[in-house]
Amino acid sequence: MIAVEHLTKKYGDLVAVSDLSFKVEKGKIWGLLGPNAAGKTTTMRILTGFLPATEGKASVGNFDVFEQPNEAKKILGYLPEVLPLYPDMTVTEYLNFVADIKKIPAPKRKESVAKAVKVAGLEQVKGRLIKNISRGFKQRVGIAQALVHDPLVLILDEPTIGLDPAQIIEIRSLIKSLKGEHTIILSTHILAEVTQTCDGVVIINEGRLMASGSLEELTASFHRKEGAVVKVRRDIQDAAAEIRKIDGVEKVNPEDGDLKVEWKPGLDLRDDIARLIVEKRFGLLEMRPLAMNIEDLYLKIVSGGAEQ
Amino acid sequence: MKNVWVIAKKELRAYFTSPIAYVIITVFLVLVGFFFYNIMLWFNAQAMQMAQNQYYYQQININQMVYQPLFNNISIILLLMLPLLTMRLFSEEKKIGTEELLYTSPLSVDQIILGKFLASLAVLLAMLGLTACLSIFTFIYGNPEVASILIGYLGLFLLGAAFIAIGIFFSSLTENQIVSAILTFGALLLFWVLNWASSSAAGLWKGVLNYVSFLQHFDNMTQGILDTTDVVYYLSFAFFGLFLTHSVIQSRRWR
To answer: If we measure between CA atoms, which residue out of A281, A191, A210, A298 comes closest to residue A239?
Structure first.
């Protein structure tokens, strides 16, 4: 549905995006993940036809965004990083205007706007001026704006930036509910956003592709560590020594008051470890799975040394 | 055309749901009314004196003595006020980030520019149209020539259209509305007085400077002379401004 091939964008000497290629299948949500200034916004601006690429191709649906920009723009909804809102319009006026410029025929306009209002949860503010509504609602208006012409493809640049945690959860579930009907790319620098909402991820840094694939593929392609992080109340060194004696445990590292336990792949030793700690009276405070490996990968990329 | 109208409608709503249009139109009418009042006082005194003498009595011409100075005054007020009308057109979109919405919509750049141009023309038309009330007095107490008044108004409208096109061009250059207004004002004033330089120029330059200046063409029209050269001049000036705007927007996006 969305295809980017060997995309390069230079601003003068500055290379913002360099030889980037990826594909997103119909009905999936993909995350464009990378630290700030990685080239996420530039990539999205090229995909939406706002900026031209220096080299390479990008297509949305079956339309090349450079060759057939108007056809591509018709099936595309875009939420820019800076919300493109007119503060002096009411929410309904604004959505009507967007419906007009997206060339929705007049008889269908009312219905389309009503649907966007409903999906984005704007019923209670639809008559108010945009400048008077809260940041969370503005973000929703931004999403409603991208949705109003029922596009096949949605491109969302940092859809949860600047929101409070409750609003972030709301927007994420809103985005998830759009999956299937729409093919979605969202950009973020927050890993949790990708693991919670996306089917796949493209990780970029300094304009270059670092890794891409579905979440399962990516985690599987790395040596999968299995284990748990354990917190005990007392005698952490003794506890470490005892846990090491359990069959199948490969490594136990005491780190910042936590015990990082790793075991052979395919096992699950959480029961044994818990029983041991309780029996020996070390005081079990907490036990959680080891962090997903994609996080390690991402941190490596962000800190500079990419492996793949 | 429908797409142009969508943009024009949005701009008109922006003008008329905010104080901008009302303030500009009101201040414009107050100033025009003041000038008209003074011109009428002067005309009355003048006409009284001239009526004493049979020869001068024939010379009293309300078109020449009232409308011509009035149109000149209005043109100066337009020069001062139209940059304030156009300064926000593109600068604001750039500043608040809505240009991304416009340029990623299936509208063409031409349609967007034209829509904004038409909206400002509509405000200009309202400004000029409302000054027509002043003519009630001249028609009750005198018998001015309608055709030359209409040509004078056409001149003002064309002049205003050229001003607006230049204003739109400078608005597309910057995201700062004040910078946009000052640049427009400076450029308009320069074109206004360009023919001053022609007195010391010679040959081809003299002709060029005279032709390019706003003033020469406007004088003809306030006198009730309708010459296609003047109409073509203003229309090509407006077209040139819009064309430059188009180039600026395209080049920004291709940089």
So the answer is: A281
Cβ–Cβ gap A101/B13 under 8 Å: no
DSSP label at B65? I
Alpha-carbon distance B98 to nearest alpha carbon in chain A (angstroms): 4
Partners of residue A77 on adjacent β-strands:
A154
- CA neighbor of B218 nearest in space, from B144, B164, B133, B155: B155
Contacts of A78 in chain B (CB under 8 A): 100-101, 104
Contact A72, A49 (CB under 8 A): yes
H or E element: which one contains B202? none
| Total tally of structural domains belonging to chain B | 1
For domain A2-220, the CATH class is alpha beta
Which residue range is the domain that position B13 belongs to?
2-254
Cβ–Cβ under 8 Å, residues A86 and B14: yes
Nearest by CB to A82, which of B10, B13, B97? B97
CA distance A136 to A157: 15
Query: Where are the domains positioned within chain A?
Result: 2-220, 226-289
- Which residue in A93, A109, A90, A186 sits closest to A150, CA to CA? A109
Q: In this structure, what DSSP letter does residue A67 have?
A: T
As a CATH number, domain A226-289 is: 3.30.70.100
Residue-by-residue pLDDT tens, chain A, 308 positions: 888 889 998 888 888 888 889 888 888 899 998 888 888 899 999 999 888 888 888 999 889 988 888 889 889 999 998 999 999 999 999 999 999 999 898 899 999 999 999 988 899 998 999 999 998 899 999 999 999 998 999 999 988 887 888 888 888 888 888 888 889 999 988 888 888 888 888 888 888 888 888 877 776 666 566 788 888 888 888 888 888 888 888 888 887 778 888 888 777 888 888 888 888 888 888 888 776 566 766 776 666 544 43
